[in-house]
Design brief:
The protein has twelve helices and 13 strands. It has helices at 14-28, 62-77, 79-96, 168-177, 189-195, 215-221, 242-254, 268-271, 282-291, 300-308, 323-332, 353-376, and strands at residues 2-6, 33-36, 118-121, 130-131, 136-137, 153-159, 183-186, 203-205, 232-236, 258-262, 294-297, 313-316, 338-339. By secondary structure, it is α/β, with parallel strands linked by helices.
Length: 377
């Protein structure tokens, strides 16, 4: 069959890029022809460009103009480190996702072609209520609105919403769009409980796509040229929180390890620190987790890949975005790996991966069964 995936495939974000690769690769293993529906809407235009001219909001106020100018100046200062990172993501997207980064994408939902036997929506936070300079709200494309009256089935796989704060208007939108789908699976238990009573078929909870591929495949995709220290603690500090950095540095020191920090974007204040690796690409990201003594992450996919590689890890202080990690840890019986600053981490407590992998194996089987049934039914 011909399968089209709608997700955040053009994001220069480690988790987004790698989950997209995992889903495509796994479905291809069944012999299907798989490609990404190259939808990248106008409100995301410029988001990962070296210069983003969408810094200026529609409301022309002195405050917005000043903020826009400040962000443009940052683009100039960050140009060369951003260029290094940019090229690595571009190469991964073109080589591993088979998406030509320079090619014009579908900017509007109405442009999406009706040429697939199955449309798979997900994973990642495609159902997130977005707040962008050019638009806000849910994107109806990711809720199955387009193509209208498609001949192909529409299936949601491991769809996520991020922060689940829903008022009456948001619930009304979901009720209106949810039955665009032939089958639905989500990533978090809380989202399953929200969607279940609104959908006319069972809603399933499944694993993120990165778990669909075996560890050996991820090892093959890790960078072969990137050198890592002999012993180090890896911090995935997605939003550059200084408190999280200091907390992790203390843990690394107590283990007599170096600290290596990666982040979701370039931050010039810490760019020149020896511990900072802000310009790595997806393949280096895999390598760093694979070889770490301990992983501390404020990101879901930092936790997910720690589990893939059976690493000791802590998920730390994710605020309103904590539910997606907590849901996964509850499923695996290791809720204690989510900690807060006021809770001291006990480095002597080790994750029992014999137990975790037994649960994970069953969850993988159920997730694969859902995908298989959705493709064949």
């Amino acid at each position: 069959m011909k399968v089209g995936i709608l997700t955040y495939h053009r994001s220069y974000n480690y988790g987004a890029a790698l989950q997209a690769y995992a889903l495509k690769t796994y479905i291809e293993s069944y012999g299907h022809e798989v490609e990404f529906v190259d939808y990248w809407p106008n409100y995301r235009r410029g988001m990962y460009d070296l210069f983003n001219f969408n810094h200026f909001k529609k409301d022309v106020t002195l405050k917005n103009i000043l903020y826009g100018c400040f962000d443009l100046v940052k683009d100039v200062i960050y140009f060369f480190p951003k260029l290094i990172r940019y090229k690595k993501f571009q190469k991964f997207i073109e080589t591993n996702l088979s998406v030509i980064s320079s090619r014009e994408s579908f900017r509007e939902g109405a442009q999406i072609p009706d040429i697939y036997d199955i449309y798979i929506f997900g994973s990642d936070q495609i159902w997130r209520y977005g707040e962008f300079a050019l638009a806000s709200g849910f994107d109806p494309v990711y809720w199955g609105e387009f193509p209208i009256n498609a001949k192909g089935k529409k299936v949601a796989y491991a769809a996520s919403m991020g922060v689940m704060e829903l008022d009456d208007n948001k619930i009304e939108f979901i009720i209106e769009k949810i039955n665009n789908f032939n089958a639905i699976s989500v990533r978090e238990q809380q989202l399953k409980e929200i969607i279940d009573p609104l959908f006319n078929k069972p809603v399933y909870q499944v694993l993120d796509p990165v778990f669909l591929l075996e560890k050996e495949i991820w090892v093959e995709n890790a960078s072969k040229d990137f050198k890592t220290p002999e012993k180090y603690v890896l911090l995935y500090n997605i939003k550059h929180k200084k408190k999280l950095y200091n907390y992790s540095k203390n843990i690394a020191s107590s283990m007599n390890n170096k600290l290596i920090e990666i982040s979701g974007s370039i931050n010039f204040k810490r760019y020149f620190l020896k511990s900072s690796k802000q310009t790595i690409g997806p393949k280096e990201f895999i390598k760093l987790i694979e070889n770490a003594e301990l992983v501390i992450s404020s990101s879901f996919h930092g936790v997910a890949f720690s589990l893939v590689f059976n690493k000791q890890f802590y998920a730390l202080e994710m605020g309103n975005n904590a539910e997606r990690v907590k849901s996964l840890l509850r499923t695996l019986g290791i809720e204690d790996r989510y900690i807060t600053y006021d809770k001291r981490s006990d480095l002597k407590e080790q994750i029992n991966y014999e137990h975790v992998n037994t649960i994970l194996k069953k969850e993988k089987e159920d997730s694969k069964k859902y995908l298989s049934n959705s493709l064949l039914d």
